[in-house]
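input
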Amino acid sequence: MTFDTLLQQSTQRLQEAGSPSPRIDAEALLAFVTGHDRTWLYTWGDRECPVEAYTQFEALLALRVQGQPVAYLTGEREFWGLRLATSPDTLIPRPDTETLVEAALYCAQNVTGRFLDLGTGTGAIALAFASEKPGWQVLGVDIRPEAVSTASNNALALKISNVQFVQSDWFSALTQAGQRDTFDIVVSNPPYIAADDPHLCQGDVRYEPRSALVADAGGMADLLHLVIAAREHLDMGGWLVLEHGYNQASLVREALVRAGYQNVESVQDVGGHERVTLGLL
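output
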């Protein structure tokens, strides 16, 4: 079977199964098993798919039809132009979160300092920032040791040396003997989905770690905690940058203003939703 025919048939199967991006999913899986990029598949679509690659592809396609995320099937996802290893122990990096990186880079204009990423997962945010700001000291923390291992391995694979990853429950490991570690920029993409949100039963999030998705108080508990806790770990003139749900921006802005942050504003993602809110201490 040619690559063109295989992609056409698999796209139809994924569309019928309810995939939101059937063609992209099929191309990503086929590129993974063949070792070719998607451009090659377009250019040489009339070539026959090797039997071994076809067998591997069909096995992965069947799992995708069942709903398993492409990023977990291939073990990788691109974010900010960086190819990152993924695992079921981490959230899958999403394009919306690049808005958070853009906001952090805006805050880092014309200065050099220390950057903290809370709940780092694959290390996507920390690594993206570190790749753009090699003069900064970048630290990523996560409560899950598996996530810390994944992020550390991503840093090694990408040869990004100005970043470190450690295990910590938010700021807990950053206070020792009464001394608090402080930073110029603190960012986080924390859990912000309400426990009863119907989206938790749909799409890729069904397979992602629930602890990295769901927060109490209608999804606001961790956001509100970080607004207060970050004050003890930000240098004066430092920025707190938070990703949140599409309908939580006004609540996060109000919390930042109440906590004494200045220059509070929200930033829209590629879909036009207010996805990131930041404030200056």
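quick obs: The two ends are 60 Å apart (CA to CA).
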